[in-house]
Each structure stands twice: as C-alpha cells, then as structure tokens.
Design goal:
The structure holds 2 protein chains of 2 kinds. Chain A is an all-beta fold. Chain A has no helices and 11 strands. Chain B has no helices and 11 strands. In chain B, the strands form 2 sheets. In chain B, strands 2, 4, 5, 6, 9, 10 and 11 form a 7-stranded mixed sheet that branches. Chain B has a 4-stranded antiparallel sheet with strand order 1-3-8-7, with no helix packed on it. Classes of the chains: A mainly beta, B mainly beta. At the A-B interface, strand 5 and strand 10 of A face strand 4, strand 5, strand 9 and strand 10 of B.
C-alpha cells in the first residue's frame, strides 16, 4: 500500500528560526515528490522533485530528494509569521498523488 | 481561465440524503482527483480519473461514487450521507508529469 509519512506533525517556532520538515514515502512506481503549502483554503504548489540530490530553491524555501533512502526535506530559513501554514508532501506515481498528514507550522513574532 | 472550480462551497445534509459535488477544470487536464481532508489526517484520496470515461478507487472510496463523462468535469456522489462523511472535500487536476492544481474546497456537514 502506498504511504507518505511526514514529521513532525506540528512545529512552533519564533520568527527568524530555521525549520526542517521531513517526508518519507513508499509509493509504487514512484515518479516525483511534491510539496504544497496550505493556509486557509486550497493547497498551493511549492516544489516538485524528480531527481535525487538536486536542491530546488525559492527564496527562503528549499527542498531536496533522496530516492535511495525514500525521503525529502523542506527547509525554511529566517521564518516569518506568513510562513504559518500546513505543509503537505505528496508522492506521485503514474496515476496517483498520495499525500501525507501534513506538518502544521506556527511562527510567532 | 478559472482553473479548478468546485460547486457548492458549503452544504449541510441530513443523514441518509444524497448529493453530488461538481469539479470543473478549464485547463484540459487528463488527471482529476477527489480528496477529503479531516483534522490531523492530511488529504486522503477518495477516487481519481486518468481520463474521460475512466475512474478508479483511491484510499477511502467507500460511500462515494464518481463519474467522468466529460473531460472537464469530475463528479463526486454521496448516495446516503453519514456523519462520518462530514469533511472538507478538495478536487484537483493535472497534466501527466505536472503538479496538481486544487479547487477551493467544499465544506460538507452531515447532521
């Protein structure tokens, strides 16, 4: 059975801290790993990773995939209150997109 | 270009009633998905479709049916609603190999 596990489930930090969110996966015929940010409503796309060891970066956010160990991390540096959200990762095979339970990040001033 | 549109946005049902949620996308995407989101549970896949006329079961299909008669629409049906189906439902669509785009969600309460 396909499975995606995220840790921690919840994280509380102060502005300026750096956080690392973890995602491990077991997905048959794996194709890519996706990260989404969910604030109040629909998840919005952050990154898609298909190759091991290649970091994707967007501003203060970055992510990397390890296909040998079947995991990915999402790093957020110099956190801001606007980073408060649920961060979801998903493993994709040819047809399905399987999500983890998400990590709820709260950033306090 | 509206993207992915879900109808309705909110609904309250009585136990045993039926309803259909509509997902419409105008991006000519092949793949479409229905998820439910409950507190602490992330997004759980209900059913999905890889193209017009096709449907397949996801992780939690029981109590739901779907149809994809037109490429742009993916319907989710509840034949006899139960309180356990109280949730927020999200539809998503994508091209092969690309990221998925989500609708704004439907909040369903079954009393």
């Amino acid at each position: 059975e396909d499975k995606v596990v995220q840790s921690p489930l919840s994280l509380v930090v102060h502005e300026g801290d750096t956080v690392t969110l973890n995602c491990s996966y077991e997905v048959t015929n794996f194709r890519s790993l996706l990260w989404y940010k969910q604030e109040k409503k629909a998840p919005t796309f952050l990154f898609m990773l298909t190759s091991s060891g290649i970091e994707k970066k967007s501003g203060r956010l970055s992510s990397i995939l390890d296909k040998k160990e079947l995991f990915s991390i999402l790093n957020i540096t110099a956190t801001q209150t606007g980073d408060s959200a649920i961060y979801l990762c998903a493993g994709r095979n040819t047809d399905k997109l399987i999500f983890g339970t998400g990590t709820r990040l709260q950033v306090f001033p | 270009n509206a993207g992915v549109t879900q109808t309705p946005k909110f609904r309250v049902l009585k136990t045993g009633q039926s309803m259909t949620l509509l997902c419409a996308q105008d991006m000519n995407h092949e793949y479409m998905y229905w998820y439910r989101q409950d507190p602490g549970m992330g997004l759980r896949l209900i059913h999905y479709s890889v193209g017009e006329g096709t449907t397949a079961k996801g992780e939690v299909p029981d109590g739901y049916n779907v149809s994809r008669l037109k490429k742009q629409n993916f319907l989710l049906g509840l034949e006899s609603a139960a309180p356990s189906q109280t949730s927020v439902y999200f539809c998503a669509s994508r091209f092969q190999g690309d990221e998925a785009f989500f609708g704004q969600g439907t909040r369903l309460t079954v009393v």
